[in-house]
Amino acid sequence: MKKFFFLVVGAIAAIVALSMLGPLVGFGFSALLVYLGMHYYVKTNSKFGKVFWVALGLIGIFTAISNIPALVGLAAIFTVYVLYKKWNNEEVSFSKSKAIKEDDPFTNFEMEWAKLTK
């Protein structure tokens, strides 16, 4: 019965994920525009360049807002992933893994922040 439930829910989630493929592609493109706008805004020195990259970032934000249904597709993909792991009797863990390197800047930042806030 448990496998049947996984199969039915997985099939429904897969159908939803496939039906949201268009908004997912649009959402990814929007995220790319926002990233490029932020990245090059910091690097440029000219006023025209800053205006251009802010405008590009805003376009990316507005197109991301119009692709909000992509979040349903992301949730469906996540559901398929979790069900696949459960089907194979694998542990699903969302905590930090031991594979994080010690020279990772975000890990070092978190460790330093924890020291400062104690």
TrEMBL record:
Domain of life: Bacteria
Protein name: Lia operon protein LiaI
Transmembrane residue ranges: 23-42, 51-84
Source species of the chain: Ureibacillus chungkukjangi
Keyword annotations from UniProtKB, A to Z: Membrane, Transmembrane, Transmembrane helix
Taxonomic lineage of the native organism: Bacteria, Bacillati, Bacillota, Bacilli, Bacillales
